Amino acid sequence: MDSQSSKLRDYEVSPQERGRDLVIAGVAVIHSVFLLFAGGLKFILLSAVPYALATALYVWADRDQGKPVFITSDWIIFVVVVIGAAIGIYGLATGGIMIWRSWADKGSDISLRRCRTRSTGATRLAGCPAESH
């Protein structure tokens, strides 16, 4: 007997274990979603990348075994995750999303971006503080 079938039998014998496990799983999901939202849109988009890749592998494996993959609502969620992943990858590629900051900007909550100085017109990377005249 494998551990999966014995676990299913345990749920049949004592359904309260299943309820307890569902509560623990629900709390874990809520906590994970909270952490993603607390991190901001940048981390939601970046976290969509591995979710999309892992789900694509899941779809591929299920199709190889001839199993049904998703129902309609699952496909909608998958498409939303793939769109988020595409936006995240585009943001990384174009510099719109930066994973880390330069050593010169440590300790500041301002991410690096291109700024044009009024006096010289030169473009530089900076935290874009107000110029003093």
Q: Please, could you describe this protein's structure?
A:
The protein is mostly helical and 133 residues long. Helix content is 62%, strand content 6%. It is built from 4 helices and 2 strands. The protein has a two-stranded antiparallel sheet with strand order 1-2. Helix 1 crosses helix 2 and helix 3 (41-64) crosses helix 4 (72-94).
- General shape: flat
What is the helix content?
55-70%
The proportion of strand residues reads 5-15%
Element-by-element helix/strand order: HHHHEE
Helical stretch count? Answer: 4
Strand neighbour order, sheet with most strands:
1-2
How many domains make up the coordinates? 2
What is the total tally of β strands?
2
The low-confidence parts are 107-113
Radius of gyration: 23 Å
Largest sheet: 2 strands, antiparallel
- The rounded distance between the terminal residues' Cα atoms is 79 Å
Mean pLDDT over all positions: 75
Structural class call reads mainly alpha
